[in-house]
Design brief:
Layout lengths: L1 H68 L5 H12 L16
């Protein structure tokens, strides 16, 4: 009887060990796949950010060329662009916005 009980304990131990190994491998595979998906998403996000950065650098270069060329010497032009693009106003000035769409 003692021999049979020892074999049962060994076989139970082997089964538990095998289940643990399979569970660990399954966890490792799922983790690996999840990380690969996240890496792909981050790479696409990086590509989009690099494209927007290059577009902004081009805009900055154009504006710098315009300033260096003296095309925007007029303070009125600078003021107009600040009001239009940056929503700036003079101190104490009231700005009315037509929300009716007319």
């Amino acid at each position: 009887m003692k021999v049979i009980e020892g074999k049962k304990k060994r076989s139970k131990g082997k089964i538990i060990l095998r289940i643990a190994i399979v569970a660990f491998l399954l966890y490792a595979v799922i983790t690996f796949i999840t990380q690969q998906v996240q890496i792909g998403q981050k790479e696409s996000e990086l590509t989009q950010l690099q494209q927007s950065l290059s577009v902004q650098n081009l805009k900055n270069a154009e504006l710098k060329e315009a300033l260096d060329a003296g095309l925007t010497k007029s303070n009125e032009y600078i003021e107009r662009m600040a009001r239009k693009n940056l929503d700036y106003s003079k101190p104490g000035e009231r700005i009315f916005v037509n929300i009716s769409g007319d």
